[in-house]
Amino acid sequence: MTLVDQDAVHTAANGFEGQMHAACNVLDRYLQSVNNVNAPGAWRGPAVGASTVTGEEIHSAQRRLQAKFELAIQTLRSNVHGFGDVDTQSTSNLQSVTSHISLRHV
User: Fold this and answer.
1) pTM metric for this prediction
2) How far is CA 71 from the centre of its chain?
3) Topology annotation, domain 6-97
């Protein structure tokens, strides 16, 4: 039995990537809507400025969050090949320890 299921790690990375893209798509559409509504001449007043600032703050947070998601996904994908090696090495280490144990009565 493996300690880490490589397919499960790939599935998790793919799931994270899908969720990241879905969230980013929503936030990109939000920023586009803010920019469209706040286009020069469309609206006036202090609320327009506040809305623009909020839209940019959300976009900035999105970029930071996306970078963290991408790092986590990359880390999972780049290290998954080593998980199987760890399982094999752990099994070998356990067998070398247990091979010296004798359960006979003296």
Assistant:
1) 0.67
2) 7
3) Helix Hairpins (1.10.287)
